[in-house]
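Minutes, project check-in
Item: structure for the 731-residue chain
Input as provided by the requester:
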Amino acid sequence: MKAVLEDMRSGKVMAYEVPQPELRPGGILVRTAFSAISSGTERAKLEAGEKSLMGKAMARPDLVRQVMDFARNEGIKAAYQRVQSRLDSLSPLGYSCSGIVIAAGEGVQEFQPGDRVACGGGGYASHSAINFVPKNLAVKLPDSVGLDAAALTTIGAIAMQGLRQSEARFGETVAVIGAGLVGVLTIQSAKAAGCRVIAIDLDPGRVERAVKFGADLGLVSSDSRTPLAIKEFTDYGPDAVIITAATHSTEPIELAAAIARDRGRIVVVGDVGLGVSRPNVYLKELSISLSRSYGPGRYDADYEEGGTDYPIGYVRWTEKRNMEAFVQFLAARSINLAPLIEKRYPVEQADTAYAAIRESGSYTALIDYAVPEAVATSVPAAPQTQKRSPGEFKVGCIGAGGFARNIIFPALRNRKGVILESVATASGIAAQSACKSFGFTKAQTPGDLLQDAETDGVFILSRHDSHSRYVVAALTNHKAVFVEKPLAVTQDQLEEIRCAYQAAKEQGHAPFLMVGFNRRFAPMTEKLREFFAKRQEPMMINVRVNAGYLPLDHWTQRQEDGGRIIGEFCHFVDWARAVVNKPVQTVTAHALPDGSRYNRDNVAATLSFSDGSIANLIYVANGDKSVPKEYFEVFCEGGAGIINDFCTLELRRDGKTVSTKSRRDKGHNREIELTINAMRNGGPSPIPFEDLVEITKACFAVHQSISIGQPVWLRQEGQKVPPEATYEDKA
């Protein structure tokens, strides 16, 4: 399918062939009919992309600081590679489209295949022939609303939310500063709501067109007579001023303060400078508020991605309800979009559409996804098996996020004989971007990749909640599989994996499963293990992790992704298990009260092992980031080993110290080396399957122990336990 993408290095826009997005729970697949180019938001993004590297740095000093911090910790070369990887990527464009539902995911009742819909959301309602859209970002269309007009629904919702924030009432006067696309939609919405409207813009041509769109008065902002004309029109000044302009200047908000009536209201919709002199604001006691995009729910992952609606008795107008209201205006012919949707371009000519908007100053243009009948009904040819060179090992990767791009893809590309055969992502667009950046042979859907006969090994690098289903599918298709941690986020998922693994064995296959617990393979960890290799006594281990604060709406905090205990704390459970090299017997854990800031990410856990060893794991989110993140201590038989953030290692015994210092190495390259070698040679996984299951159960037991306030035992054959013991699978 075709998708319009921006080259992040050059800023060039063109249509690429990309895989279809994956249907996921809570959303729908939509075959796009039209998508609308936003002349303001998208043009600003493209202008930023066309800047030189220095220009990009000057425009985003916040990102420069992030790169500098990363360079201090990981080195200049690693920082350079990360920046280059970002510049070599492709970025989706667009956030407002319309089309036909072709499939509904699990948990979606309100949409059926064949429904006509309008869709919104960056990364969802993209300029793409097929989009996956969460159910709260799509609304049904009545037959009376054309798919062409409906493509502007999301942008209309932005205008509608700005008007709601102004609290404009029937008969009041509203001034709109900035008569661009959002501005003229705001003007028409205000007129439909029974308000008198003043349109103000720097461009006389846009002022003239705003009057044709329904403004009662059109004025040029640079004209010195404008304030007087407003006073004559209103007597007191506008009741509300809505700023839909886009400029770094503070002139729009200064003008708004100058013309608003006493105790008037100013709403900022556009990206403008917010500095305003005090006298006008203070003497008139003006109210200034900002309007957040399409409305309540915007930027709330639980609402947009999780499908959790807000009760209408408490939040009357969400972003979805604003979209529905705009569609109702279209159905009632209260808003005229005909002049806005005259310019249309086939998706293959998207670059021409963007160039035309920039040159002509048009409000918008529609991208048309009409497909000729012959193409629509044709059946793709079956893939041809390719000849292999001796020693080649072809890998397919599912997921192309930051960790995959910065760590795993480079490590795989650097392995001799490894061919980056295919890459798949939920959206499809990120897969095409990875092809460009890292040289993957092809981009696929996850389902196609898992069944591809050309793929020897599968690397699963997607969101945590998707790991188990991809692992089960890979094992079922007899693929050697590496999955980033965690292996599973629930007991049920772990049991499904165990059953798939056992079924493969019973069918006569030798299933291969490896989890990305890299820290056990770090050079300093291997030296520490060698130092204690001949021990005869139990070990005492202390691990302190200054993980850092993450907001509750960060994706890693989501329950469906396992939270931070399952998603990251598991690394340190595995590290202790690898160093002791004996089964975990019991888990005792406590957590600080979460309050409104934390989510079980200030945790103390004690693991006891079958040989009597003990590991104390402290994981905190409430520390200062200047403290090194990870600190490990091991004591045994008069010896001590200390690893400080994988930068320094001290091994002490009999008063002698052996110190090692190096660039931070957490074992990713060694992990990939061992995994590829084992996959290629048909050997066992670097971590036995039974150990992977045990480590995952131990992480579940941490949660369980916190909840019940007592130790949790892991089931082991032949172990002696108290009769009142609680097992890890009795949550």
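Outcome recorded: Residues 371-385 have pLDDT under 50 and may be disordered.
No further action items on this chain.
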